[in-house]
User: What shape does this take?
Amino acid sequence: MRAPTVQEALFSVKSFAASMLALYVSMRIGLPRPFWSMMTAYIVSAPFAGPTRSKAIFRLAGTFLGALGAVVLVPTLVDSPELLSLGIALWVAGCLYISLLDRTPRSYVVMLAGYTCALIAFPAVDRPETIFDVGLARVEEILLGLGCATLIHTLVFPQSFAPVLLSRLDHALRDAQHWISDALSPNGDERSAQDRRKLAADITELRMMSTHLPFDTSHLRWTSNAIHALQDRLATMVPLLSAIEDRLLALRELGAGGVSLRWNALLDDIRTWTGAHRGQAEAGREVALRAQIDALAPAIGSHSGWQELVEVKLLARLRALLDQCVAVQALRGHIDAGAHGELPASARDVRPVGSAALHLDRGMALMSALGAVIGILACCAFWIFTGWPSASVAPMMAAVMSCFFSTQDDPAQFIKGFLRYTLWSVPVSAVYLLAIVPAVHSFEMLALACAPAFLVLGVLIARPATFGKAMPFLFGILTTLAMHDTNSADMVSFANTIIAQLAGIWASALVTQLFRTVGAGFTARRLLKAGWSELARIGSGERAPSVTEFSSRMVDRIALLTPRLALAGKQQDLLAADALVDLRIGLNMTQLVEARAQLGRSQAALWPLMEHLSQHFEARPRVDEDGEARLLASLDNALRSVCAAPPSKGQRDAATALAGIRRDLFPQAAPYQSSPVIEKEIR
Assistant: This one.
């Protein structure tokens, strides 16, 4: 094992100090389970002050809700063990389901409320009259633990979250700038779709990390709205850049060499402007670039051919890209100013789209909740049937495990890993419980005895590569030490508790493997189908989301999809799918819905088209050749109708959206041709 870094050692020392402070105060004021305070201090500790403080707030709220659930359920249903077991299982499952519908760290509040109820209720079923005192004590112990952790990590060499977040933010901006440079290069770009999806992964990671920002110790916490808005802008840039690449490719396929030569100056100027470092870009240069774009834009009319429509579409996307780049530069400047305590007033009015734009899978959330119910009830049935007092630990652990790993495609694999490292902690736990702790007679000696193991484990927890191994090991030791709180620190009680604890984890792994485990390919298909379903709803006339909201959600799906496509292997139905294309189509459909109201009688041809688009995406991934032919004919008919409409902004937006949809759905089809017959009829 390599030597710890300064940051790892500092985190370990601070976490140990916080846990010892929580343990000492708990003992001094006479709380019944002081080792719960110690455990809480470790659970909420994070290398940075912001996440530590946010986890403390979330854990306090979740503990209070969980204790409230236990206080209501236990006295009401204690006379019927079966109903009480069902009530607690449903409480855990309901909380888990709700938490999985919020894919930010805030979901920890509701998830914790679920399994905290189980942790408080199951040990108290034989003493229901004490449930209020027990629940209050748990809240006090956990409040003390998180308070000590927050105090130490905030006041003692606090590690600000700002440098890490700004580094990730600039990394995402560099990825976007590289994509712009590659897309606008004269000969195109040879990078893979895997590289293109990096930006989507950057945006999703930033969105998760920035949830902790309001709790940070630096001035950057006042810029959270600007950071979220910048993430939204980056999400909108993904379909724009993808579309620009594809439209340039289409022009090359059409042999538009003259067009490419005519536009080289524009593309080079945009690439130079976007590649300039912050503060070095020529002020007002974007105005001249917009004028260059407008000068190249051909007029749209009934005579317009496919090449002209592709050019108009490309120019529209280049103009939109300029607008997004200007906004991104302004927001990045606001963030820099805010980091130095000089946030301008205009930045305070920025409003991002929020976490509602993230992908949600209610079906998988329901399956996770069902797995939790079955696992808890199975352990409760074993407990009731055997009458084994220590078996109350089993449903408690089943509840915890069902919640901890519910976001994974294969939770059983992670639960088994937790079981393995908990098992490895048993010898160390036995030495501490049965030999070391009984021999110490002061708090100072207890702290010295705990220091070697806990300081080493603290370093391993600080390392992402070993966190998943060190945390269950530490959890196993602390759970065992808590037996001192109940005066059951003997060999028989230790063996009973360990067996019940391992049985609960094993039962959770077994039930999860039977009812909840899915492969990467299965999840990838669900992500693709979720995107197709949203496109079908837009086509059917349901409320179309805003461009920013739709882009953010689809970009989030792409970020979730990328690692799963790699794990799924060469599955033909997945290889044929491209979520970036779906994102471009959705952007065009949203634009088409917005422009439709400005077209007058010309919008009549759009109604059958939207219906065909809805049917097309409802049928995916199945391919109906007759349906494809009807859809292509409907697209061409709508294009002819819109191109023949009186010139207006709505006509231009609709024509570019239709051209984009045609190119994305039928890249190999023959170029669009205007129809003189239809033109005469329209006139």
